[in-house]
Design a protein that fits this description.
39% of the residues lie in helices and 8% in strands.
Length: 126
């Protein structure tokens, strides 16, 4: 949280107009409302990383309002190995590679957005 605070202070000091924060959809914790929106607040974090991650988002949103810079937030995935128990993308790819069916949870109507990490980097550089 202190690292984010330092970056936000530098952004303010140097008049940065865009502060991009690659977050985690896990900040929504046990939320049952779908789709998730940035305005939803989790009151029941389910992992240890959630409170500080949500605090970082709230901190950056506050700086955005006070010092008038854009603050896009995105959940990302990339090439590095991910914990198999946690990330659907890895599970989906491994199951497709093995010719296995992909499990469907609920009625199949749930959607989730992910942004490939290279696309985030290209967007920042652009």
């Amino acid at each position: 949280m202190l690292g984010t605070q330092n970056l936000l202070e530098l952004a303010r000091e140097f008049g940065v107009s865009n502060f991009v924060y690659a977050s985690s959809s896990s900040v929504y914790g046990g939320n049952t409302e779908f789709p998730f929106t940035e305005t939803q607040m989790s009151i029941a974090p389910s992992r240890l990383m959630l409170p500080p991650t949500k605090a970082n988002e709230m901190q950056a949103a506050c700086y955005s309002r006070l010092y008038h810079f854009q603050f896009p937030v995105c959940a990302s995935y990339g090439l590095r190995p991910q914990r198999p128990s946690r990330y659907g993308i890895r599970m989906f790819i491994e199951k497709m590679d093995r010719g296995e069916p992909i499990p469907m949870y609920g009625d199949g109507g749930f959607e989730r957005d992910f942004t490939y990490v290279d696309d985030i980097v290209n967007g920042i550089l652009g």
